[in-house]
């Protein structure tokens, strides 16, 4: 199992990804979803390696337990599907002087 930890997480999500609640939930979710859910929809059997938030954690929802821990917002993915998901997301941030900068992924 590859551990993604909180290395790519935004500051407001890092504490959550290090929490016991997430550790327990993500292990339990993967145990009940041992195969990548996206691959499975295509008839491909690939072992899941992580639990992904469909609605990414943001400053606006970082305290919403249905977003953080709700099964409806979670998806077991393989490394390839997880990488594809995050590579298609681009958003922008602004630095202290108001200039736009390319932002990193939320998760």
From TrEMBL:
Residues in HNH domain copies: 36-88
Pfam families assigned: HNH (PF01844)
GO terms of molecular function: endonuclease activity; nucleic acid binding; zinc ion binding
UniProt KW keywords: Endonuclease, Hydrolase, Nuclease
Name this polypeptide is given: HNH endonuclease
């Amino acid at each position: 199992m590859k551990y993604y930890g909180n290395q790519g997480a935004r500051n407001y999500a890092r504490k959550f990804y290090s929490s016991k609640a997430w550790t327990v939930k993500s292990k339990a979710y993967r145990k009940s979803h041992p195969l990548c859910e996206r691959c499975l929809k295509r008839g491909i059997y690939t072992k899941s390696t992580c639990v992904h938030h469909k609605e990414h954690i943001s400053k606006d929802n970082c305290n919403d337990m249905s977003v953080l821990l709700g099964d409806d917002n979670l998806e077991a993915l393989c490394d390839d599907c997880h990488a594809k998901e995050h590579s298609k997301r681009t958003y922008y941030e602004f630095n202290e002087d108001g200039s736009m900068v390319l932002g990193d992924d939320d998760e």
